[in-house]
Amino acid sequence: MGDYKTGLVLEGGGTRGIFTSGVLDRMMREGIEFPYVVGVSAGSCNGVGFVAKQIGRTRDCMLPTPGDRLVSVRNLRKAHSLYDMSAIFDRYPYQEYPFDFKTFFESPTEFEAVATDCLTGEAVYLSETDPENGPRLMLKCKASCSLPFFAAETVVDGRAYMDGGLADSIPVARAAEKGCERFVVVLTRLEGFRRKKNSRLTRAMERVYRRYPELIRTMDERYLMYNREVEEVERLEAEGKAFVIRPKDKIVKKTETNREMLLEFYKQGYQQMDDRMEELKKFLDEKRPAQG
Fold first, then answer.
1. Which of 26, 101, 129, 144 could cross-link with 113 by S-S, CB 3.0 to 4.6 Å?
2. Contacts of 139 by beta carbon, 8 Å cutoff, 6+ apart
3. For the chain, which ranges sit under pLDDT 70?
4. Per-residue pLDDT tens for 217-256?
5. Quick one: residue 159, left, alpha or beta (phi over 0 = left, psi -120 to 50 = alpha)?
6. Percent of the chain with pLDDT over 70
7. What is the DSSP string of 143-200?
8. Side-chain-side CA neighbours of residue 285 (13 Å)
9. Per-residue confidence (pLDDT) for residue 289, from 0 to 100
């Protein structure tokens, strides 16, 4: 790898994150690593799996099995969450899809999960370095994934958090704050996508989350933040400072439950990364210009 500090930035998107799983699985097979990884929502799940070097784990967690109710209205009635958050963050890491906590905590890579503070409406960057506290790592990833209307708030150290994508959807600026000069960015939307103001969603937030006025404000202004961040990524890409990989074909919805469609979206990510592997290696190997 070159002498630039390069950060890996992972957008969220619910089950659209399976595209990112494909991209990262191909990177892991090539042995690619980064000194800093930051993930948002589903990107945080992909990020911890990448640091733990667990090829296929995040993909398997996202692929429904017969009788699986990972995403269902029943979850919403039972636990106020469309997603079965207990399965994802409490059961899977220790039973069905064991998480390699040892490899994660021994890695030199710094990892952060983006969440949104419900009281301030601001982005927070959660990390965990205590090798004896695997459940706390999963709790922080859960906070990053707690999407309004689809999941309840997640409390960490007495603070309530929700999905990090509300306040910082594509945290390139955070990676720069951590000393990164170049960026590998994995997006889950098509090129050219921009968000629009959604007044109906804001009104729904005002009814359901009226105790969190700053969170409502953040949600109302999310489209502005998101579009600014996409434009910044495009600028960095044009300047050769960012290697960006995003879906080329149609994407799945963030609550997709069709196993075949999800698997195809995973394969799209894997194949795109395979096709661009030499380009990525060249980007990572680039050296700083010699100083005269």
1. 144
2. 89, 154, 156
3. 1, 66-83, 291-292
4. 999 999 999 999 999 999 999 999 999 999 998 899 988 8
5. beta
6. 92
7. HHT--TTTS--EEETTEEEEEGGGT-SS-HHHHHHTT-SEEEEE-SS-TT------HH
8. 6
9. 78
Alpha carbons 232 and 27: distance in angstroms, whole number = 24
Q: Which amino acid is at 55?
A: I
- Residue with tokens 């965990």, as numbered in its chain: 128
The residue among 143, 169, 157, 233 whose CA lies nearest residue 38 is 169
Q: How is residue 85 written in tokens?
A: 């958050």
Which pLDDT score is estimated for 6?
98
Give the start-end residues of each E strand in the chain: 6-10, 36-40, 110-117, 123-126, 154-156, 159-163, 182-186, 242-245
pLDDT of residue 70: 60
Q: b or e along 33-54 (b: 16 or more beta carbons within 10 Å of the residue's beta carbon)?
A: bbebbbbbbbbbbbbbbbbbeb
**Quick one: DSSP state of residue 247?**
-
Q: Would residue 246 be called left, alpha or beta, if left means φ above 0 and alpha means ψ between -120 and 50 degrees? A: beta
Instruction: Give the phi and the psi of residue 115 in degrees, each rounded to 5.
Output: -135, 165
Q: Do β-strands 159-163 and 6-10 pair in parallel, antiparallel, or remain unpaired?
A: unpaired
What is the token pair recorded at 249? 């074909």
